[in-house]
């Protein structure tokens, strides 16, 4: 019965028609990529896919659901954000959800699983948790612990409004200033106060963080792809924990938007971005391949766990998908730390390699959505599409909490064009047979058993 339904759905869906898209974002890389696929822009609401900024989502897909004034979408329509993505992408909410998941696991006695969530630095919401923070600060001071904290506004980006503190008086001054801003009805914002990672892993004496891309297709069941490419963003100045340098953003904040402003930075001489593959090779050469593989598997597990922590809170609208930009740092013991998750990771490109990476990323993301749409009629989708590998599929072979079942391909060879061509070929032959009636319902699965072939290529193209 299920097979028959899928067969009929496939026959009635015309997989070869031109895809229509709507967008609020013109003059950007995403728009160029949508056009380069020969997809057609539409101003009407007859789009198949809508590529929107988060403001559009909050207006058109309000949290309270479609029934209360939001858009009513057709079965096949897809939008690029979940309505309440902020549960993961706002600094304070992300930590709140991670803390809650950890607590629940501890209550259930799953202490090993709870320990796996120790990948976010201790964080307090300010000012609501100011007294808790002050108590903690005093306790640490009594134990003679040197402490540095980083204050970050919850809703800003590009390092704006961030500063480091190492004295209680600095926090008290901030609280006082915020109090008077509030009283005078001036602009004021909430912050998170987070333990500063003061022993970061350094390369050539420089601090760096990673930008990694994860594509979530659904929260229930959770289905996630991870992109093989990404990059490390370095500071231009050597790292130091010298007290006099605490206010020097060029040392402490690795945002490229900040580093570019450093007067001593010359883009023609220094490239502050490293492909993630180079970082993996560097780790492999320095610490050995086993250590590097473990670090990258841990990194992948961190992403899965962060998504699991919001699985029950995010409104799982079947029309939505989301490409997240993860910011992660390593401490010198090679432990990955989650810094934040971005709902609209920057798609601006300074260099040719940046542009190539981001165009490939966006194009592959659209391929995943397209393929999921077409191939889901058969109840099967490939484990790899271009540079994206499935890392978690609650309904598929990559089962929950079996992190040994799939290793991380992050930073591994990304022969995305060849892989996409192979998928396209398989798709065309399968499609032609089904449409001409040469394939019956009974042997349909045989022709769409793409998983086997693609998983073969998945294993041969990696260097691990
Ligand atoms: N807990 C921390 N310990 C050490 N460094 C940190 C910590 N949190 C943030 N940083 C540094 O500050 C930078 C900016 O932090 P974060 O990404 O949270 O801010 P943002 O303004 O939202 O930046 P983005 O534009 O990437 O969204 C990071 O790239 C990292 O270099």
TrEMBL record:
SUPFAM superfamilies: Glutathione synthetase ATP-binding domain-like (SSF56059). Keywords: ATP-binding, Coiled coil, Ligase, Nucleotide-binding. Residues 88-115 form a coiled coil. InterPro entries: TTL/TTLL_fam. GO terms for molecular function: ATP binding; tubulin binding; tubulin-glutamic acid ligase activity. GO terms for cellular component: ciliary basal body. It comes from the Eukaryota. GO terms for biological process: microtubule cytoskeleton organization. Pfam families: TTL. Belongs to the tubulin--tyrosine ligase family. This is Tubulin--tyrosine ligase-like protein 9. It comes from Chloropicon primus.
